[in-house]
Specification:
Order of helices and strands: HEEEEEEEHHH
Largest sheet: 3 strands, antiparallel
Helix content: 25-40%
């Protein structure tokens, strides 16, 4: 009788370890034995227990990243520019978003930092304030 109870518990755990739900506006990256297998879109899904693994769940919503850059203007005034960057993962680029970059937010910050440090020194303080919505 104990063997039957243990077997039922194991089958119950395997069954619930096989079913998973992906929420709306997100995707789950599934690997089989450590190799990319598929991308699961929103809804109810099935995976093979122990063999398949959910590596990452990516949000497809718009995210905002604040970047603060201190730089000098053309008239030698130091300004602290705060840039709000809005970004999102495109549904067809989920594989690249999961596997291509170690830290995408850091790369976005570095790109914005370089862009601001290249453009603001060409402008005077008055031009920076008048063109703040242009970029």
């Amino acid at each position: 009788m104990d063997f039957f109870a243990i077997l039922c518990i194991l089958l119950f755990l395997l069954l619930f370890g096989s079913v998973f739900i992906v929420r709306q506006q997100s995707c789950a990256v599934i690997e089989r034995l450590g190799k990319f297998n598929r991308i699961a879109h929103p809804g109810l899904h099935w995976k093979i227990p122990i063999i398949d693994d959910i590596v990452s769940t990516l949000s497809l919503r718009i995210n905002q990243l604040g970047v603060s850059v201190e730089t000098k203007t053309l008239d030698n005034v130091f300004v602290n520019v705060v840039v709000a960057v809005q970004y999102k993962v495109l549904p067809e680029k989920v594989f690249e978003a999961c596997y291509a970059l170690q830290n995408p937010e850091y790369q976005i910050k570095a790109f914005v930092f370089d862009l601001v440090r290249a453009q603001v020194p060409k402008l005077t303080l008055d031009d920076v304030f008048s063109k703040k919505n242009d970029y």
